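Here's my example:
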Amino acid sequence: MFVSSSSHLLPRWLEVLLSEKFYNACIIHEEAKKNEKNIYCLDCCISLCPHCLPPHRSHRLLQIRRYVYHDVVRLDDANKLFDCAYVQSYTTNSAKVVFLNERPQTRTFRGSGNICSTCDRSLQDPYLFCSLSCKIDHIIRTEGGLSDYLYECNSLSLPESGLDDGLMTPDSVLEPAGSLRTSSGSGGTGSVGCRTLVCTATTEVVRKKRSSVSAYRNSCRPVCSPVSEISVSLMNRRKGNPQRAPLY
């Protein structure tokens, strides 16, 4: 990871943010419930649990969330600190998020599609980076510094709705390529449209299968069964006088 080799080029708050291990239990409040360290104080450069918050209420605070076992932050929060253009974002739990760090890959992508400029992870076009750390690493290697991409942020608070556990359900939607914007690269309808298309196609296949089965059954069913005609004729026949066999 670039942090070890280029940390002297990063501001202190960013260096710690990208190297910190979040969601570990707080050793100060180890007996308390909900003691996961999922808050980052940019002024003190430390991770906090909800019980550590009171002394830091006036500081710049960033909530770290977790999606599929990896740390993410809300895109709106990240954009206040850093230029997130061309970093692939996701929509999950009605929030747009970006990954903090590069994620491990089981195999290297091989194909003609779009890939991350740093780690070669497969991406949706036209994104260039899979995480903030990948973009930062690329900028440092190509431009030698981050000064043009860092924003001055004097105030950063936790969500007004209150602090949640930060755990997000594994049902994400890639941000559509057409919604890329200079500062956020976010949107939210393209993939939903794809899902709708898939569902519609599946429904049509099921309807065709059902209609085919019904047609097959109707073709195999005789218009008027001979056995039924014989049974009806026997039931409608009137009984006559019994006839005995002649005696010899």
